[in-house]
Design brief:
Blueprint (H helix, E strand, L loop, with lengths): L5 H4 L11 H14 L3 E5 L5 E4 L1 H7 L3 H4 L13 H13 L4 E2 L6 E4 L5 E13 L2 E10 L1 H23 L3 E5 L5 E4 L1 H7 L12 H10 L3 E2 L5 H13 L5 E5 L4 E8 L5 E7 L1 H50 L8 H31 L4 E7 L1 H19 L2 E4 L9 E4 H17 L6 E9 L2 E7 L7 H4 L22 H11 L3 E7 L3 E9 L30 E6 L3 H11 L5 E6 L2 H11 L3 E5 L7 H10 L8 E6 L3 H10 L3 E5 L3 H13 L8
Parallel strand pairs: 13-21, 14-16, 20-21, 20-22, 22-23, 23-24
Antiparallel strand pairs: 1-2, 1-6, 3-5, 4-5, 5-6, 7-8, 7-12, 9-10, 10-11, 11-12, 13-15, 16-17, 17-19, 18-19
Helix pairs in contact: 8-9, 10-11, 11-15, 12-13, 13-15, 17-18
This protein binds adenosine-5'-diphosphate.
Adenosine-5'-diphosphate (ADP) binds next to helix 13 and helix 15.
Length: 671
């Protein structure tokens, strides 16, 4: 083709333009008929001289019928008289314009149906006089859509209005575009006229100036700053109080268009309710600690006379000079037996009240499970023999890691489980001890094949003084052991549980965190988040945990005494920094008290490490050091202690520091 297009290659007919009259009429006719709007042309007297195809279709007339008719045939009867006047007016001063601007216009079809229209008029001066061309558009669809939009708007507005709280929308320029009447009531004070159209700043300022809000505890300027900051970056909620004492909760959220939706709720009742709950909780806490105090002092008081009763009963029992008759001996044996039971009861109550009030000193250290089990077995053996129950300790896996526990308390728990397995076991049955690693914890189980626990009794078995039903009637017990066990296990960062079938036997277990020697790795147990420590009985508020890293027992005892004045505080002491930081990492206590001169890793180094781990970096650390040396003081500067106190401890100073930390609200639990 030599680069030529097909057209270029073909011979083109000569150019004719529209010189041919017939041809040009045809083109104009087609142009008119393909126009999107109906076109009606009238002469000075209002007679139709020309219509296009759209006009024929729109009004339903054949062209011939329209030509020569008065244009008013296309207008509903009621508008005709005015239309004649208007038409004449247009002829007198003709110019292009929409017709009847601001009015709703209607056309009428040949069959009498009316429909909304929009008309634009243009004068057409011709040799034979002034013609007027009207472009007519059927706007039925548009009107219907407008109606639909209006309905939706109305729904939206009545929904917004029916919201109980205040509702407002600000646009991207921070101007109020919509609000309901509650919003008007709350934010409208100090403002004359409409709220819509005002800027957020204007609204806030006017309200604060009018003293509409009571800036509880802060100045109006502070409240303004807080509100504006919240408005710029709305997360959570903002609480304010009105002059009349209503508590309002403001919730703002950004819209995808860059505006803001604001709701304001009256939460006065909720706030009052919360305050009441808090008061009730404080009362319950006070009552609970009074109960613990009472139990503790009662138990002390009871022990003294009981000591005398048991002492003299024993003297009578073994009196060689004037031996007792068999009858008397039998009776005094009853006194001794019941007295000893009473003594056990008192001791356990004393222990429980100490554990419950947090006044128990735990010293956590790595504990070998096999050794603890062997010792427990030796202690329980005589009891088992008497009850004709065999004790079986399954071999502990060679590689079973140590647990992090208080040795004495750990053994106390195993003894309690073991003695229960014997007491509630079957004659010639077996009490079986087993230990195994389960992820980051070691689980120790004590199983028996005895009377078991009825399903209905199982739920409350770890609650104090709860003994499971009449089957235990003949078996001596106090119903306190398991309650102490649970609390101790939780204090050590562990958990307890059991399974039991009535008539077949029970299996009680405890899980304790594994000790990880050399804690640099990520393997420190997180299993026991603090929140899990809370037992249902603790709905009275969170307990606080303090870890004291200290190798001197009398310093530990002093701390224990000092903390006796604080409610719901648990103290765990750890004799070495290596174990201490591991424990802190796993338990995330509320406060760490750190001795500086420790065997092995120093307190400074331990603090440096704790500051380095994200999960422990925010925990306050109070340093307790013997005689501060100058070289120390420098290093202490960067170590980031909450306080640095020197020994001998000034009790007032320490108590103040403790108060500061413990009275502060607990931080949100870390993820
Ligand atoms: P105590 O044994 O002094 O009554 P505990 O707190 O140790 O108190 O136990 C509470 C109750 O749980 C017991 O009274 C008993 O009903 C039930 N119980 C505990 N261990 C077992 C067990 N191994 N088998 C059956 N019941 C048990």
């Amino acid at each position: 083709m030599n680069g030529m297009t097909e057209d270029e290659g073909r011979e083109r007919p000569p150019f004719r333009g529209l010189s041919d009259r017939k041809h040009s009429d045809e083109v104009f006719r087609k142009l008119l008929d393909t126009a999107p709007d109906a076109v009606v042309v009238v002469d000075e007297l209002g007679r139709i001289v020309l219509v296009n195809l759209q006009a024929e279709r729109l009004f339903g007339y054949p062209r011939d019928e329209l030509i020569g008719s008065e244009v008013e045939v296309l207008i509903p009867q009621r508008f005709r008289p005015t239309h004649v006047g208007n038409r004449k007016g247009f002829v007198a001063s003709p110019k292009v314009r929409p017709m009847g601007s601001g009015l709703e216009l209607f056309g009428i079809k040949r069959d009498g149906a009316e429909f909304p229209i929009e008309i634009s008029l243009s004068p057409l001066p011709t040799e034979e006089g002034m013609l007027t061309s009207a472009s007519i558009r059927d706007i039925t669809d548009r009107k219907q859509n407008e109606l639909r939009v209006r309905r939706i708007q109305e729904h939206l507005l009545s929904a917004v209005e029916s919201i109980q709280g205040a509702f407002a929308i600000f646009d991207a320029k921070d101007r109020l575009v919509l609000c309901n009447s509650t919003c008007h009531r709350i934010l409208g004070r100090g403002i004359e006229g409409a709220l819509v159209g005002r800027s957020f700043d204007e609204l806030v300022d006017a309200n604060l100036e009018a003293g509409a809000f009571h800036p509880s505890g802060t100045s109006a300027t502070d409240l303004r700053l807080r509100w504006v900051a919240y408005h710029r970056e709305p997360t959570g909620v903002l609480d304010v109080r009105t002059r009349e004492g209503h508590d309002l909760r403001i919730v703002e959220r950004r819209t995808p268009e860059g505006g803001t939706v604001m709701t304001i709720w009256d939460v006065t009742e909720e706030v009052e309710h919360e305050q009441e709950l808090r008061r009730a909780r404080a009362l319950a806490e006070a009552a609970n600690s009074a109960k613990s105090e009472f139990l503790a002092s009662m138990s002390h008081e009871l022990r003294t006379p009981l000591n005398a009763i048991l002492g003299f009963a024993q003297l009578l029992h073994r009196d060689k000079k004037t031996p007792l008759s068999d009858r008397h001996r039998e009776r005094i044996e009853h006194v001794l037996k019941e007295g000893e039971h009473l003594l056990r009861l008192i001791d356990e109550i004393l222990d429980l009240s100490r554990v419950e009030s947090g006044r128990v000193l735990l010293s956590l250290e790595p504990v070998g499970v096999a050794q603890a089990l062997a010792e427990v077995r030796t202690t329980l053996e005589p009891m088992a023999t008497r009850a004709d129950v065999e004790i079986a300790v399954r071999p502990v896996p060679q590689d079973l890691p140590d647990v992090l526990a208080d040795y004495t308390r750990f053994k106390q728990i195993l003894m309690n489980y073991g003695s229960n397995a014997i007491k509630y076991g079957r004659r010639r049955g077996t009490a079986t001890f087993r230990a195994a690693l389960r992820g980051d914890v070691v689980r120790i189980c004590v199983a028996d094949d005895g009377i078991g626990i009825a399903e209905g009794q199982q739920e409350r078995i770890f609650q104090p003084f709860h003994r499971a039903g009449r089957d235990t009637g003949a078996i001596e017990g106090t119903g306190i052991g398991l309650a102490i066990t649970k609390r101790l296990a939780e204090l050590m960062g562990g958990r307890v549980g059991f399974q039991s079938r009535e008539g077949q036997g029970s299996e009680f277990w405890i899980e304790l965190p594994v000790h990880h020697p050399g804690v640099e790795g990520p393997g420190v147990s997180r299993a026991e988040a603090r929140s899990e420590d809370a037992s249902p009985a603790e709905a009275q508020g969170p307990r606080r945990l303090i870890v004291y890293i200290e190798d001197n027992p009398s310093s530990c005892a002093l701390m224990e005494d000092l903390l006796a004045d604080f409610e719901r505080v648990d103290l765990i002491t750890v004799p070495s920094a290596e174990v201490g930081i591991e424990l802190v990492r796993a338990r995330r206590p509320d406060l760490v008290i750190m001795d500086i001169h420790l065997p092995g890793m120093s307190g400074l180094e331990a603090t440096r490490r704790l500051r380095g781990w994200p999960e422990t970096s925010a925990i306050p650390i109070i340093a307790l050091s013997a005689a501060a040396m100058v070289s120390d003081a420098e290093r202490v500067e960067d170590a980031g202690f909450y306080r640095y106190l020197t020994k001998p401890v000034r009790v007032d100073e320490l108590a103040r520091a403790l108060e500061e930390v413990l009275m502060a609200p607990p931080p949100a639990p870390a993820e």
